[in-house]
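Hey all, sorry for the wall of text incoming. These are the two entities for the joint prediction.
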Amino acid sequence: MKAYEKVEASRRGTRPLGRAYIDAMLTDFIEFHGDRYFGDDGAIVAGIGKLNDIPVTVIAMERGNTIEDRLKRNFGCPSPEGYRKALRLAKQAEKFHRPVICLIGSSGAYCGIGAEERGQGEAIARNLMEFMTLKTPVISVVLGEGGSGGALALGVADTVMMLENAVYSVISPEGCASILWKDAKKAPEAAEALKLTAKDLLHFGVIETIIPENNRTFEEISATLKEELTKEIQEKMAMPIEKCLDNRYNRFRKIGA
Amino acid sequence: MHVMSLFVEASVTCKACGTEHNGKKIFSHHYVCPTCGAYLRVGAKKRIRLITDGTTFSELDKNLISRNILDFPGYDEKLDVAKKLTDMNEAVITGIAKIGGAPCCIFVMDASFMMASMGTVVGEKLTRLFEYATSHNLPVVGFTASGGARMQEGILSLMQMAKVSGAVKRHSDAGLLYITVLTDPTTGGVTASFAMEGDIILAEPKALVGFAGARVIEQTTGQKLPAGFQRAEFLLDHGFIDAIVERKDLKDTIASILQMHAPKRRKKVK
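and here's what came out:
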């Protein structure tokens, strides 16, 4: 697949995202709501559940399946209160020594007046800082479109995995093409130039693992992901937390050094 | 380490009222138009001269130079133009200096270099500065300005947000002070990382500060933006910055904050 075909695949309305993977991989999931400051952002589904009998906190982006659901979830674009809910539950996980799984899939943080009024930049910035020293293992998975800072806000982790046809980029190919070449139709060229596929990102050390997708059913893909997550979590839980945090810092420290 | 040379133009024209001013005169007015009061953008070197004491500034990592890692079309040319235009190697200058007698690390971003977008070198210079400040027990004073991440460096530029934030967190956890001064314009990935991570966040009057671009918001939502949207005063009203400080008062304000955080006053919390 060409880069832009992957962009289209990652955005496809029928592509399973956060909630579908939670249901497929976790048992006894209980959703927790709200940021305790302003509201509850439907674009982030979060709570606790068991992954192969290991209690985990899961924080997932979700766009919804029906039109009503999508409107409620703002088409999966998180607002500041979504990132603050994520941080609240990550801190809760830290307190109770639960590992955190972040599931990423969104065109980006919401671009709206309310989001700016409530500090979208501040909310993302705080997550970047706080997740870096969160004293419990964090594993992130890019399931769909990993849209810029809004995706990275759940992407500061010990290990980052990516589905084979997911993408992760600093800007949408359309945005890039219209800024650089004043022509959004050149998005396919921009997608190539941005090097946003899982294979590219593995090459640059931005992700550690690719979950194969092609010619596989959702059940097969989610079973592989469940297995990989369990393995990673067991490994990270066995490690002294200081070492885990040093590795997390250095994981980002070496990018572009 | 290197000491910078400073070039002051013969004359500068105010973009707001069109008045032409003598270069030295407008420098002494801190690049605030004496005729209409508009705030003109200040280049990094001039800002350092205006804020730091005498010749105390000493530059770090001056020779880190961006490469076209992704082989992105047109990026080499853009870097060449920016370097020639600004006589800088990258969009941020970092170093150590004294402000009002207080030693500190300082960084200043320069919007005339590719809109001070953050690529790997900007991220690396800032990370090194925070690491230096942490190991030398120094506060950091940072002047932000940026169009956001540098898209010609793709995902690697995005990752700089996390990298710098990690270094800021370690500096913060060491009990050290970080003051940010938001200048016009501070947007995108810089707003969503180290610009908003200061212990104390100051801004210049009317500076544009936001995450998403105003045009993008209008196109996405179809809503008309309120007057003064994403200006410093808007952020103050919504509780996201500590104070708006006029440019002529910035040095004294920063010096005063630094003095109140002098190391001997700090006691470690056990």
